[in-house]
Amino acid sequence: MSKTNAVPSLTTPAFIVDQQKIQQSSETLAYLRRESGCRVLYSIKALPLRPILEWLQPHVDGFSVSSLFEAKLAREVLVKEQSVHLTTPGIKAAEVAELIQLCSYVSCNSLTQQQYFLNASSHSVAVGLRINPKLSFAQDARFDPCQIHSKLGIDINTIDAKSLQGVSGLHVHTVFSEQNYAPLLQTVALLRQK
Fold it and tell me: Phi, psi at residue 27, to the nearest 5°?
């Protein structure tokens, strides 16, 4: 490597972020929002570094979080109109009151979690259910969110009309890294049928 292309000396370990790549990704997100009309959320658990969240903040509609800590961080960075969406298997009953103040939407992973939020005195947060449709498309079972004993959502076969009272939406995982919409369309068809 020539001296003109040399990377400055760094103390390791170091975490290096390419701001130009983040800017390019932000422009892609802005295009997606503009052309599709969809809302874009950035999942904080992917990279919870505050400077990155601040760079992304103007380009997203909000952040997806998986803990009280992440919800607090998201609220610190976002403006009032932007939303915080919580989805996690691990919500403690003692955290519900604070999460209601921080989050716009909570996708409950269990019927117990759902009751925490529906029974809370303030209903300022929209409550949804994370459903396991039991339709597997993943090639590797280790990464299959829909496997039989998965803890990622409520078994679709246990949902009834009572379970859906007070619910404003459904959250499903079909498969990540898919190159076409066929699995998603099959999942939606199953949800409609049920």
Answer: -65, -35
Determine the pLDDT at residue 119. 81
Dist CA 142 CA 131 (whole Å): 19
| Other CB atoms within 10 A of residue 82 CB | 18
Phi and psi at 170, nearest 5°, equal -120, 145
pTM: 0.81
Nearest of 112, 114, 109, 118 to residue 173 by alpha carbon: 109
Q: Are 174 and 135 in contact (CB under 8 A)?
A: yes
Per-residue pLDDT reduced to its tens digit, 24-49: 988 888 888 899 999 999 999 888 89
C-alpha dist (Å) from residue 22 to 16, 52, 66, 112: 12, 8, 22, 38
Kindly state the DSSP code that residue 80 receives in the 8-state scheme: T
DSSP run (H or E) holding 65: strand 62-65
d(CA 114, CA 43): 22
Query: What CA–CA distance (Å, rounded) separates 132 from 105?
Result: 19
| DSSP letter (8 states) at residue 44 | G
Phi and psi, residue 105, nearest 5°: -145, 135
Tokens 């803990």 belong to: 67
